[in-house]
Amino acid sequence: MILRLISILLALQALKHSLQVLAAGRRHHCIQLFPPHLLSSSIDKMLTASLRHLYIHCSLAPTIKLDPQDAWIEQLDYAGFAKEVTALGKELQKNTGQADVDHLNKIVSWRNIAAAIGVSTMWMPPNPLTIIALSTWTYASWTMIAHHACHGGYNRVDAGKFNSRGFALGSVKKRIEDWCDWMMPEAWNVEHNRLHHYHLGEDLDPDLVERNLSFLREMDIPKPLKYGVALALMSIWKSYYYAPNTFKELQITKWRQEGRELPTNFDPNEPVTLRMLFFPKDDGDEAIAEVINPTKFMLQVMAPFLLTRFIFLPAPLLLFPGLGPTLFSHAVVNLVLAEMLTNIHGFITIVTNHAGSDLYKFRDEVQPKSGSFYVRQVVSSANYNGGSDLLDFSQGWLNYQIEHHVWPDLSMKQYQLGAPKLEEICQKSTIR
């Protein structure tokens, strides 16, 4: 009887150890990161109960050997890393003050200058100055101003309307005044702030690039044509993919809050595009329309930006006698080309620091703000050169992606200050 109990406990201990080692299993550079002391399961409970009466010490060799480049996973002091990262985050939060507000106002003024140049010259025949200015207006409004305001980066200071509790929320009027883009702010807050940031690189991450673009890899066409498709999608991705996908996550949240079951053929993890919504091909696409009412989507999500940017904004040009239609058409073409450019600009500065063969992906989820969580934010993100306002502005402050994923609610200025300090913490650890 005792031998049988010993055998059972040894088997349980071996299984637990195997799960810890399997935590390093990869799937397309997909890795499950959590240290043994954070592994909590029914096996732990069974072992604890049994070992009250019988203590067994067993040393088992790992059943799976980590790749050399992943050896750091077993060597890392997760608790120590979390302690340092948490302390630095609190320091940066504490140091947020008037200097951060002044810095925000400077970035807003740069955005406004771009808007003024673009709008005042959009009547001209299509030209680079107007297109770049209009594109920068849209890009800065989203990636720098709305992005950090919606995350609460300025909630600790008096930054006026740039507070996450009311910025662009509650009405179409607020949306137009604060931040009008293809994405509905309420939907963006759910999809980006909640789901993407707390499931970075996981199967539950709605912005998992490798999965969302799998259809492109699977296309039976020559590679040059695939690049052509990618380039075409880059120029329209915010309206074609991001607007419907963020709204999908908002609708799923509402359905679940109301206790409603999602349609049988609806896959909540599948990215939604305009094609799927308005030109369904199968039962899965049909189910999407049940969750995302196409008419409601067009009225609530797409119409505010579509009407204000491409119709109402250039409409006064029609009042010019004789020249009105020509000036209006010039403006619309400039606005459309600027929209394509800002999409490409955003794609280049966002997607590239979320995807790549050197960035890890994960099968499961971990506790937020734990050592494993912080490690994931580092190894599933990429930074680009920065440090000056002009260089960072050109990249939408998205070159601090690691810092932003580690501490989502900091100001732009604090990311500049915190980046070298976080890099120092990572360099002295075993993270590679």
UniProtKB/TrEMBL annotation:
UniProt membrane topology term: Multi-pass membrane protein
Domain Fatty acid desaturase stretches: 123-429
Subcellular location: Membrane
Coiled-coil zones: none
Gene Ontology terms: cellular component: membrane
Keyword entries, A-Z: Heme, Iron, Lipid metabolism, Membrane, Metal-binding, Oxidoreductase, Signal, Transmembrane, Transmembrane helix
One Pfam family in the UniProt entry: FA_desaturase
GO terms for MF: metal ion binding; oxidoreductase activity, acting on paired donors, with oxidation of a pair of donors resulting in the reduction of molecular oxygen to two molecules of water
Keyword Iron: yes
Functional pathway: Lipid metabolism
Signal peptide: 1-18
Keyword Protease recorded: no
Gene Ontology biological-process entries: lipid metabolic process
EC class name: oxidoreductase
Source domain of life: Eukaryota
EC number: 1.14.19.-
Similarity section: Belongs to the fatty acid desaturase type 1 family.
PANTHER family with a match to the protein in the record: DELTA 8-(E)-SPHINGOLIPID DESATURASE, FATTY ACID DESATURASE 2
The protein's name in its UniProt record: Fatty acid desaturase
